[in-house]
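Good day; I would like, with your permission, to put a structural problem before you. What I wish to show you is a protein chain and, alongside it, a tokenised description of its three-dimensional fold. Here, with my thanks, is the record as I have it:
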Amino acid sequence: MLAERVDALSELLGLSRTRVSPEALDGAGELLERVGDRRRLSADHTVVALAGATGSGKSSLFNALTGLELARVGVRRPTTSEPVACAWDPRGAAGLLDRLGIPPRHRHARHSVLDGEHLAGEAGQDHGVPGGLGGLVLLDLPDHDSAALTHRDQVDRLLTLVDVVVWVLDPEKYADASVHERYLRPLAGHADVTLVVLNQTDRLPGDSAELVLDDLRRLLDEDGLAVGEHGEDGAMVLATSALSGDGVPELRSAIGQIVAERAAAGRRLSADVDGLAERLRPLYVAEGATGLTDAAREDFAIRLAQAVGAAAAGRTAEREWIRAAGEACGTPWGRLPGLLRGGVRASAGEGPHDVAPAGRRPALAASRAVVEEAVRMVAADAAVGLPAPWAQAVREAARRGGDALPEALDAAAERAEPGEPGRPGWWSAVGTAQWLLALLVMAGTLCGAAAAAGAVGTPWWLSLVLLGAGAGGGPALARAGRFAARGPARRHGQAAERRLADAAADCGRARVLEPVAAELLRYREVREQYGVLAGRHFRVTELSTTGQ
């Protein structure tokens, strides 16, 4: 399980480096290295550190646990200026001691019965080493409240590397805010690898030791450090006196049990990973559903259609269709002004594309504000509920695509611009009928003139019939053609509007929605990896990442 979480952390960092600031990820890379280093070294050894303030008696306790006078005890403070180590069954412990930075002159070993005959029989035999502590590497750390800054730096460094910490407190300074605020409270999640020892109980009269222990447990509870009582998991709280030896066997037995389990190193690393996961949580966990909604995509497409003037282009195409139908179905004399205007333009050297059709869509430059607003709106919708770094990444992806979107929309709109209307077959039929009606007018006129001159003997009313049929039928047929053109013209305009709107939507999808969807997909990946890192399973099915 720890291996999976560490792999997830590595993946998480790889996916996050360009999205999350290095300051926010501070310590994550260091933790990866620390976990890797510890897992490569001996799993048969457990590093236990005695930490405490000046005068707490931890060096005396260290000597009592080892059965050797290894740590210097005295009145001069601070007494412990450098860490001292004692390894039970030291074979294989050299790598751990090198990692801890313990100088060779401060490394000691317990590997023969003569080293501590008085310990024999108290906790059985393990690995041929007395005291049942085979595999233990015990450290006596410098005082954490030392006036020498280098001592405190050493304590802070070593506390991140050891497997188990035994906090040695004394009756005078057990409630000191410095140890609670600086060390115990931040390590609240490490209760399973923490022991708290009230030392020097020989200085307390009567039942005072129990009262102080109760108050110590209360303070630890306020620190958030769970206290393991009655066999429950949590930090162990013990009372000892290195001077009289009271409680030392119990402490040695508790340490021996931890060492025998060979699980402290894994528990410590898991607790470190838990702490990092909790600190990183605001960077990776969103509240509620996230993603790009269908409504936001639809609104984005509508705004882009407005920006390219799709509706105006559709109305223009409809009017052009009606105009072309009117020309095709109109009377020949009604078409004369248009033909004359075309001839004038041709004689002046103007080409057919020199004058834009009336009602052409507005220039895109005038709609740039609409495009920018559309990009802002869709980015804001996609970023809803995302943690700050990923919301910023989504907005940046939309902005980058939006910078070149107006020009891309302009080119797409030019390609989708409706051309000249096609000529349905019935236009030609109506046009032919108009010419026949015009011929009737001409025939009626000639017939009437010939009859008036006496050149022909046709009845007078025949010319009137021909003139009436031709002159009245032409306009009536033109009006009927314009009426019949309304439905097809409307469909033609709607098709032109839809074609232009689709071109704008495709352009917006490629330039903005797809990059945004890629960022949302990356966030989904990091969220899944964070779920593995945190040891919890998060729902990710509600996260929409499509840009369609």
About this structure: The two ends are 38 Å apart (CA to CA). The beta strands are 46-52, 84-88, 107-110, 125-126, 129-130, 136-140, 164-169, 194-198, 236-239.
